[in-house]
Design goal:
Number of domains of chain A: 2
CATH class of the largest domain in chain A: Alpha Beta
Number of helices of chain A: 14
Strand order of the largest sheet of chain B: 6-5-9-10-11
Distance between the termini of chain B: 51 Å
Largest sheet of chain B: 5 strands, parallel
CATH topology of the largest domain in chain A: Rossmann fold
Shape of chain B: flat
Oligomer: heterodimer
Number of helices of chain B: 16
Shape of chain A: elongated
Radius of gyration of chain B: 30 Å
Distance between the termini of chain A: 53 Å
Structural class of chain B: alpha/beta
Strand content of chain A: 5-15%
Number of strands of chain A: 9
Largest interface: A-B, 36 and 44 residues
Helix content of chain B: 40-55%
Chain lengths: 283, 397
């Protein structure tokens, strides 16, 4: 590694608490120039990691939100035939109709390839797309180039982007896909880690509130029947809600009166279970 | 380097590929890995591709770098029990020493490994002697797993600290919950069923068909003619037929049914029927199978493209399926054996499948399963089985 590269290693963002393990994985992934595949419970900061990398390394971030109907070509480039047709009919634009390249627009992956600086490319929720999409996309990311068929031109990446891929799937992705990625599973943070995370988001939070909220939160996560357990994201929103409420007192939680359960439990059966349990046990 | 480590991983069944191993070598040669901790983290990120194998990886790592015994799954449960015992002992050395029948002093002289061995030995005897209700192992509730206890000889038990060495971290086996053995949950099955879909154009014509637009425009001598079309929506019809009679099916009925209900919005139509053991002249719309019968013959009127999925253990006495009066319910006397009805359904619906909660290993030993398998393709209710089932009912022929 050159000195310059060493300077550009990742050590966390202003709003992201990074455990050492993950920092090492990010750095080694960047050094090996491989995509990093992240899995983990929803709301544990998979997507936020990409934002944090972009922020701390001062790279532009390009986000590709995968949709189930998406085709690979949409992520690479788009040939705007309708505009061209329109121009050819009316001829009132400055574009050159005989030059197809004027009508090619780069998709998110294309943008990351042609960007002048090295960018962070976040491919969010890859599991939504079908397997063919995933495999084909990895081919492109492996070769770092793709062809634009219409103008017979190959687009090569100027700078190899830092690629972060997230997946919510419990099911594994295909083998060829996995073979080309580094993998990490973000485990749910321990209470200590969670306190740090909350502190980063609310630098001047009342210590009493922090302590009680985190404690109550982990107790609320223990309900077995709940389908979608509240995660980091919910906790942060919850604290934000309590902070915003002028009538709220920390004592209420200690007394067992938990406000804004709806912020934590978003499915109605879950909400009902939580409410029942809270009123019964006086948490 | 670390070739042995690599092969141990392969041996215990972690799918690691040579390519990823070479990549690890590359990382090593670049000087990116400078300590055992680094090696633990990077080798896991590079070699292991699913959190389900993290636990096995941890075990192999601990084995390789610390000489920890690789455990069989059965032994493992014992060692967990031993850990609980050790904890109890740390609280009250005297009591346990008495229980084991050796005095406290000689216990203190044993090394941690010897101690564990000793415990395991005793524990095996114990489980055999008091089947089910040994007070030793009954730690649930009385012995919360303690932190930071110390064996007089110096071994640390359980406990958490912030700066643990990689080997310690590996020994913690934090990823046990993610390993393959976990139960099949609704989310798991939802994943598998996602692919059960059949796209058909519906709704308003709000999408531009570019090819057609260009073609029509050219035909129109360059005067632009934009052609719209309908977007694609999933319009699959599914019939779910569930055996809710036998005890064996009970744990699965809720899961299977709620699952298909869950994805109901995705289908155009989802109907559920019930039966007991096998199908005769009637299926039932109501779960108690009493008030709302539905004649099997009526199925000819239903779109044959409907996906027909039966869930049942297919295990019964052979006469129930082969004899003309096979039903164990007296009121179901039709004169036609069940096997004919099943064949009729299979002929009627080209895309059909049978889901069986029994493990496929047991299938060859049950006669009726073998018979039914010849009529309906049978799949296990596991993630794998569901996926195969989906592929099968979605295939063109």
């Amino acid at each position: 590694m050159s000195t310059e590269e060493i300077e550009r290693t990742f050590s966390g963002g202003t709003k992201y608490v990074l455990d050492e393990e993950l920092a090492k994985i990010v750095n080694i992934t960047m050094a090996l120039e491989m995509p990093l595949l992240l899995k983990g419970e929803p709301g544990t900061g998979k997507t936020m990691l990409a934002y944090a990398i972009a922020e701390s390394l001062r790279m532009p971030l390009i986000v590709l939100n995968v949709k189930s109907s998406m085709k690979l070509i949409d992520a690479l480039y788009q040939y705007d035939t309708l505009t061209r047709l329109n121009d050819s009919r009316f001829g009132d634009s400055k574009r050159d109709i005989s030059n197809i390249e004027d009508y090619i627009k780069m998709g998110k992956i294309g943008q990351a390839f042609v960007a002048d600086e090295r960018a962070v490319l976040l491919i969010d929720e890859i599991d939504k797309a079908d397997t063919d999409f995933q495999d084909d996309m990895l081919d492109v990311l492996d070769q770092m180039e793709f062809d634009i068929l219409e103008i017979d031109k190959t687009i090569k990446a100027k700078q190899r982007p830092v690629i972060v891929i997230t997946s919510n799937a419990k099911k594994d992705l295909s083998d060829p896909f996995l073979g080309r990625c580094n993998f990490h599973h973000i485990a749910f943070p321990e209470p200590d880690m969670m306190r740090e995370i909350v502190q980063v988001h609310f630098p001047d939070i009342n210590q009493d509130l922090l302590e009680t909220a985190v404690k109550a939160f982990y107790r609320l996560r223990e309900f077995k029947e709940v389908e979608k357990k509240p995660a980091t994201r919910e906790l942060i929103n919850w604290i934000r809600a309590m902070n915003a409420d002028p009538d709220f007192r920390v004592k209420d939680i200690i007394k067992g009166d938990i406000p804004y359960l709806g912020v934590l439990f978003k499915k109605s059966p879950d909400y009902a279970i939580a409410q029942r349990a809270v009123s019964r046990h006086r948490l | 380097m670390f070739t042995e480590f690599f092969y141990t991983l392969r041996q215990v069944g972690v799918p690691v590929t040579p390519t990823s191993f070479l990549r690890l070598q590359k990382a090593l040669s670049k000087g990116l890995i400078n300590s055992v901790d680094d090696f633990y983290i990077s080798s896991r990120a590079i070699l292991i591709k699913s959190e389900r194998y993290f636990d096995l990886f941890d075990q192999v790592f601990a084995h390789h770098f610390k000489g920890v015994e690789l455990s069989d799954p059965t032994e493992f449960d014992l060692s967990e029990a031993a850990k609980a015992l050790l904890d109890a002992w740390l609280k009250d050395p005297q009591a346990i020493a008495d229980a084991l029948g050796i005095d406290e002093d000689s216990l203190a002289h044993l090394s941690p490994e010897e101690l564990i061995d000793y415990f395991l030995e005793r524990l095996k005897e114990q489980t055999e002697a008091h089947h089910g209700g040994s007070k030793w192992i009954g730690t649930g509730g009385t012995s919360p797993v303690g932190h930071s206890g110390y064996h007089p000889g110096g071994m640390r038990v359980g406990g958490m600290s912030r700066n643990k060495s990689a080997v310690k971290v590996a020994m913690d086996r934090r990823y046990r919950d993610y390993s393959l053995a976990g139960p099949l949950t609704r989310t798991h099955m939802g994943e598998a069923l996602k692919r059960l879909r059949n796209m058909i154009p519906t709704g308003p014509k709000d999408r531009v068909n570019i090819d057609e637009t260009i073609y029509q425009t050219m035909k129109n001598a360059g005067e632009i003619e934009i052609i719209f079309e309908r977007s694609l929506k999933d319009r699959l019809k599914v019939i779910l037929v569930i055996d809710n009679g036998g005890w064996s099916m009970d744990p699965y009925i809720d899961m299977v049914q709620s699952l298909f209900d869950y994805s109901r919005s995705q289908f155009k139509d989802l109907k559920t029927y019930f039966f007991h053991n096998t199908i005769y002249d009637y299926l039932w719309v109501d779960p108690p199978r009493r008030s709302k019968p539905y004649a099997v013959d009526e199925f000819v009127r239903i779109d044959p493209e409907t996906r027909f999925i039966i869930v049942g253990d297919a295990s019964m006495a052979p006469y129930e399926i082969m004899a003309t009066d096979g039903s164990i319910h007296l009121e179901e006397r039709s004169g036609r054996p069940s096997i004919e009805r099943l064949q009729f359904l299979a002929d009627n619906f080209r895309h059909s499948a049978w889901l069986n909660p029994k493990s496929s290993v047991e299938w060859p030993y049950t006669g009726t399963i073998n018979i039914i398998r010849q009529i309906f393709p049978m799949f296990e209710i596991t993630l794998d089985g569901l996926e195969k089932m989906v592929t099968h009912v979605m295939s063109k022929n």
